[in-house]
Write a structure and sequence with these properties.
This protein is α+β, with helices and mostly antiparallel strands. It has two domains: about 60 residues, Winged helix-like DNA-binding domain superfamily/Winged helix DNA-binding domain (Arc Repressor Mutant, subunit A); about 170 residues, Beta-Lactamase. Helices cover about 40% and strands about 20% of the residues. It has eight helices and eight strands, in the order αααββαβββαααβββα. The strands form two sheets. A six-stranded antiparallel sheet has the order 5-4-3-8-7-6. A two-stranded antiparallel ribbon has the order 1-2. A hairpin with a 3-residue loop joins β1 and β2. The chain starts with a helix and ends in an 8-residue tail after the last helix. About 30% of the residues are buried.
């Protein structure tokens, strides 16, 4: 851990819990030495994230800190846009859908229609994290992202791409969907597709959708190829938000 960075966030968090705070109050709450608090506040002020109200009132955060949450607001907007389409799909076909995004070394579920599906094996899964390399969502995202981003993610995971992994991603791009890599005792089969930019030239994924099915119930073969499921082929051409293959 880089201590100066950690201390800066400690001060930011302390200021976010109050309208304003003095150096003494912030030092007492964070257990940081007073000189350290002074230096950090000076840096945050120079960067525009904090400002001094007065000697008596101390410091407060500025609206510049809202910019740090732009990525989170994008996720919220994505959910708002995708949720109605996902619900319509689940209502029509019965399959539960899950919307996921890359979060550190895992895929995090941001929205789910599991509660709306009579075929669901779980009632929520919101904020559930799944391994990138073995989950249907993660594999779909990795297959369709740019080579540079794929290399960076795999490096972050400590994985060196080999011929087998490269072939797996090529097969996912060809088929337009991915499957969960199941353990031997696994019975739930996930199927994922990448949500790609509408009419973009690069066709890179924004996020990913997937659905869960029971392997014993024959869920996997149903969309092994787009021709077997017209809805899947339609989604692959349009890059729409309303399908998360099963």
């Amino acid at each position: 851990m880089i201590e100066p960075v950690a201390r800066s966030f400690t001060i930011l968090e302390a200021l976010s819990r109050r309208p304003h705070g003095t150096i003494t109050a912030l030092a007492e709450e964070t257990d940081l030495p007073r000189p350290t608090v002074v230096r950090l506040l000076k840096t945050l002020t120079e960067l525009g994230y904090a400002t001094q109200v007065s000697r008596a009132a101390g410091y407060r955060l500025t609206d510049k800190v809202l910019g740090l949450a732009q990525g989170i607001r994008f996720v919220d907007h994505l959910v708002d846009v995708a949720a109605p389409h996902m619900s319509r799909f689940t209502k029509k076909y019965g399959w539960p859908l899950y919307l996921g995004t890359i979060s550190d070394k895992a895929i995090t579920i941001r929205h789910s229609t599991a509660a709306e599906s009579p075929m669901s094996f779980e009632r929520s899964a919101l904020q559930k994290r799944s391994p990138i390399l073995s989950s249907a969502l993660g594999r779909a995202w990795l297959a369709f992202c740019s080579p540079e981003e794929r290399r960076a993610v795999l490096e972050h995971l400590g994985v060196k791409p080999d011929a087998r992994l490269t072939a797996a991603f090529a097969r996912i791009r060809r088929d337009g969907h991915s499957f969960t890599v199941l353990p031997r005792t696994g019975r739930l089969q996930g199927i994922g597709v990448a949500i790609r930019r509408w009419r973009s030239r690069d066709g890179l994924p924004v996020n990913a959708l997937h659905s869960l099915g029971n392997e014993r119930a024959g869920g996997r073969p149903a969309v092994r190829r787009g021709a077997q499921c017209p809805r899947l082929g339609h989604c692959r051409r349009r890059g729409a938000l309303d399908f998360g293959g099963k």
